[in-house]
Amino acid sequence: MMGVIIMKKVFIGFLVGIISATALSVYADDGLEKIEAYLRPSLPITLDGKKVTLENPPVMYDGSTYLRLRDIAALTGLEVNWNDTTQTVELGKKGDSQMETTLNPSEESQKRALRLYDLRKESEKLTEQISSLYKLIEPYEVLMGSPKLKEKDDFYDKTKKERDVLIKRREEIQEEVNIILKESQAEADQEMERLRSELNKGN
């Protein structure tokens, strides 16, 4: 059914977010990064084929859906704790002190998160530079039927070449970002299976 997100996929997205957010908050020298996200309270969520109601609405950011970990825990019978000493999110089954699952971002996931952060910063800088170069070559080109104001010369050729190089680099960054996101999703998928396995052992 369109518009319905199965819990596994949502949980995977959240795990990716936890891994990335933890790494960035600990290692990013620039501190917190301001982002633009959207609440989507009307988005249906199902668990084992049954529609569920969450205390907090899903958050849409950068093409992914995120849920609060405590909402997930409430649905799956887990307890959530933050270990400030080890900087980890700890998931434990309610009423069972012997069963505890620790969600600790791997070294590889931390590296990916840092790389993703650097790539996005570089992409933002490239976008600003490309925009500035566009303004320089705009008088040499016909835009929306209006006549060009200058004849193309060496300056135009040099500036256009520089702009094209930056555009290509930005495209390369986007390709690398897509690869990193796929790798993070695959790791989150494995983590989800591990959590399920440990939960089944505890039953």
TrEMBL record:
This is Copper amine oxidase-like N-terminal domain-containing protein. It comes from Paenibacillus ginsengarvi. Residues 156-201 form a coiled coil. It comes from the Bacteria. Keywords: Coiled coil. It holds the Pfam family Cu_amine_oxidN1. Residues 47-104 form the Copper amine oxidase-like N-terminal domain.
